[in-house]
Amino acid sequence: xxxxxxxxxxxxxxxxxxxxxxxxxxxxxxxxxxxxxxxxxxxxxxxxxxxxxxxxxxxxxxxxxxxxxxxxxxxxxxxxxxxxxxxxxxxxxxxxxxxxxxxxxxxxxxxxxxxxxxxxxxxxxxxxxxxxxxxxxxxxxxxxxxxxxxxxxxxxxxxxxxxxxxxxxxxxxxxxxxxxxxxxxxxxxxxxxxxxxxxxxxxxxxxxxxxxxxxxxxxxxxxxxxxxxxxxxxxxxxxxxxxxxxxxxxxxxxxxxxxxxxxxxxxxxxxxxxxxxxxxxxxxxxxxxxxxxxxxxxxxxxxxxxxxxxxxxxxxxxxxxxxxxxxxxxxxxxxxxxxxxxxxxxxxxxxxxxxxxxxxxxxxxxxxxxxxxxxxxxxxxxxxxxxxxxxxxxxxxxxxxxxxxxxxxxxxxxxxxxxxxxxxxxxxxxxxxxxxxxxxxxxxxxxxxxxxxxxxxxxxxxxxxxxxxxxxxxxxxxxxxxxxxxxxxxxxxxxx
Length: 496
What we know:
- It contains 26 helices and 11 strands.
- By secondary structure, it is of the alpha+beta class.
- The strands form 4 sheets. The chain has a 5-stranded mixed β-sheet with strand order 5-6-9-8-7.
């Protein structure tokens, strides 16, 4: 998504250091201390520094292990559990949960474990005002307890602010869907919403448990131009206006801003990266033929079937590096709640050449979050030969400590995982060249982009859409190939 910074500020205020919740009676009751009295007391700059110093001494393995315990259905990961968690762990735990975009789930787990319902000292002893103080008044706290209580109160406000933001975004998306769904239906084209609201409705008991920022819609290549035009006529603003860039780079999506401010990404293929698309065999029309209908906000919404949803979520996570726990949690939830036929999962994964990419996320979801994935499925999807060793090493690096900083989790190997070793090696070299090129192009010139640069070729839009409608594909850079053959070397330069 092109607008991650704005989304972070709106929906993850903890990660951005912002909060809109005042220290009122609701937060006082949740934390169990008098915030106004404490704020006027010993919590000065020196005390806040002391709190930060104590937090910095919390071992990352304790934070990461407790985070995984909060995300697992049994509430335990190895030696770690939320029960009796010390505040010195809770504060960095919440901050890391925000970075991994699993804050609402962790918030529910902390409340269920009564961690955010009491103010705890260094020893973990609870302070219950209604029980411990005469008349239910807030008791006087020792300076160390007061500092910790204020820190917990700050975290609690920011947690609640993030959850309220997720609820508000879901309601906004429901309002947008009320307008675009009838429009798509009237066009009489096949369409499906992927990720975002569909994933939140399918995999989670409440939509705010899976925050999201935009709407992703998949349509057939032959219908792409008609849907873009219809959305524009309905008031959507096209943000990706450089059709020459889209054409030259073989991009398969455009971003738009809808009436209520929500961003919509319109796709004609699930893999936007032009070079990577040729390494997979994902047929958009076949995906849309298998789509199903679910209810979101009282409205019938088309989305991919259970198997295709799992494969797409896992593939998207792998393409993004696989290091964010929200993606791993998505896979675990889909496995837990979906009625999956594992034979179909394996067959479609191998047929679409997404097996290793899907398998590595299924393996991570089982190892970290106890997803019920059969061992024989993981064996069937495992990468052959050389790269399997690298991917197994990557999994060993994905430890509770590494999750705290998202370092050393093997993002590069995951996002270049392909169905065979040669294709993976080529993808890895391509990605290394891209990273070496850096953020800016040659001679310090910023590279052209689809959204920030106006199109200097007025005919580019028509040329892109006409070619897409005629061929079901886009022109652009040469894509990755699973194997190089004489036929492929002399065939068309672009394949969807």
